[in-house]
Amino acid sequence: MSTCESLLPPSGKVPSPAELAALIKHWGGELGFQQVGIADTDLRLAEARLIRWLEQDLHGTMDYMARHGTRRSRPAELVPGTLRIVSVRMDYLPEPLDRTQPVLADPTHAFVSRYALGRDYHKVLRRRLQRLAERIRTAVGDFGFRVFVDSAPVMEKPLAAKAGLGWIGKHTNLINARAGSWFFLGELYTDLPLPVDRPAADHCGDCQACLAACPTGAIVAPYRLDARRCISYLTIEHQGPIPEPLRASLGNRIYGCDDCQIACPWNRFARLSSEDDFQPRQGLDRATLIALFGWDEPEFVARTEGSAIRRIGHRRWLRNLAVALGNATPGAPVQAALNARAEHPDPLVREHVAWARGAQARKVCG
Questions:
Q1: Catalytic residues, which ones?
Q2: Which residues partner with 253 through β-bridges?
Q3: Where are the domains of the chain?
Q4: Which residues are annotated as a binding site?
């Protein structure tokens, strides 16, 4: 008898909530999730922290964080009838960190956050969660559910912590004691009265490695992130000019930042992803700044097909690359690349190219 068969109730009988919870976790493993947990909808503590964070204006220009109100922290307001959240995680690290760090240290190369090297994770996890919901329907009949993968006002990390998938670390990412933090999260909101899992304990202790590693000092205190200084926010969420005082700190990071995760000692337990979809595409794990800066808009659109990177658009792509080229080691190829974009029709691009040319000139002049 297979493990799954042993979990099934007698033929024709609807599984009990406990039996169904065990089945859901088994099916989740079969669908490629490394862990599945179940949480209730009580997020009062997380809601209070979110309100304080918003009141301190630490969300930058992400006005939607406040606009969604309590729908983010009260799941039943977002999806009426929700009783439980099935939370899942899926590893995405495509390569060992000893191959990642040399790219980050090489000013001629572009550093793309490891999560964005492959296919858009939203689509991958959403499809798997939908298949999980279909298996549940086969077992219990019609039931209420909605699938979310960073696609609505959902407090995915507090929910995952309540579901036992890990704890929220001082860098505000979720950490699992056996798998580090290199994983994606997804949720299945459901009206099924499933038994809930025990939350994981916090194991950060006295460690402050992530705070020390942040290039811009965005982790302003343990468990508190100032998005306005965060490189991931600045290169992805932020639509306007990158603040000048922070540009040099971006280094060669053109899409996201992984420094706090690289520094976290729990990531010595991180596991490489076995998902083909998360393997690097378009050579983005080894691409040079100059090569990527040379992409015109049609090439950018074509090469980012199916990638999370496409969401920032070509103008912000060039903005980020211009800053990285301004931080690069001076040389004729860098100067030529920047000169070629000096008269770009978009003022956002022109301004960052002008800054980069100035930064290069200052380096040459000493």
A1: 150
A2: 111
A3: 3-94+119-225+265-280
A4: 72, 150, 174, 185, 204, 207, 210, 214, 230, 232, 257-258, 260, 264
